[in-house]
Amino acid sequence: MDDLQMEIFSLQRKVDQYKEVLQNTLKYREEWKNGLSEKIRNILQRLVTATSLEAEVITRSEIENLEAVLLSLGTAKSGMFQKVNEEVRRDLIKHNGSLVYQQLFNGKIIVLINYPFIENYGQPRPPKTIAIYRPEELKEPYFIRHMEDFMQEITNWEDYDDDEPNKKIGFQL
């Protein structure tokens, strides 16, 4: 085999890999439509019920093939408000955070944590990516781990007091 043939062979492997990735995208999108999104909804709802967590499982489907299933902790008055005048006050709304399973452009599923934030009070923290999965990789035990991560992150946010909570004060002996 001459050098040109070797280079063409190498190029052909890259072309074949590209075609395979495109086919996988179509396959992953079909899996989402044919039951994966419903499976995610059902598992999350089961976990909410089992733990008595005050949360809602929501499907977002505004854009085809970028749908998402969210476990949302909802919104509430933050307890802070702006005085408009002596009789009127404007409550600052707190978004309590969410765990998100969203289709990516290539059909894979990204799992994110949206942190709580209070409207008009600082900047919301960017979402934390837990993982990205092919549909067949998203197994039931992962959902519990994702929920544990989510609850830990949300609890840490709610209990915020310092960037280094485990740093001891005083002399280090």
Structure described in brief:
With 173 residues, the chain is of the alpha+beta class.
Describe this structure in words.
This protein is an alpha+beta fold. The chain has one domain. The protein has helices at residues 3-51, 140-158; strands spanning 56-60, 68-72, 75-83, 89-95, 98-103, 109-114, 117-118, 128-133. Strands 1-2-5-6-8 form a five-stranded antiparallel β-sheet, covered by helices on one side. A hairpin with a 7-residue loop joins strand 1 (56-60) and strand 2 (68-72). The longest helix is centred in the first third of the chain and has 49 residues, at 3-51.
Features:
single chain, 173 residues, alpha+beta, 2 helices, 8 strands
Number of helices: 2
Number of strands: 8
Counting structural domains, the number is 1
Topology order in helix (H) and strand (E) letters: HEEEEEEEEH
Oligomer: single chain
Give the strand order, joined by hyphens, for the main sheet.
Answer: 1-2-5-6-8
- Computed structural class: alpha+beta
The whole-number mean of residue pLDDT values reads 89
Rg estimate, integer Å: 23 Å
Biggest sheet layout: 5 strands, antiparallel
Lay out the secondary structure.
Elements: H1 3-51, E1 56-60, E2 68-72, E3 75-83, E4 89-95, E5 98-103, E6 109-114, E7 117-118, E8 128-133, H2 140-158
Antiparallel strand pairs: 1-2, 2-5, 3-4, 4-7, 5-6, 6-8
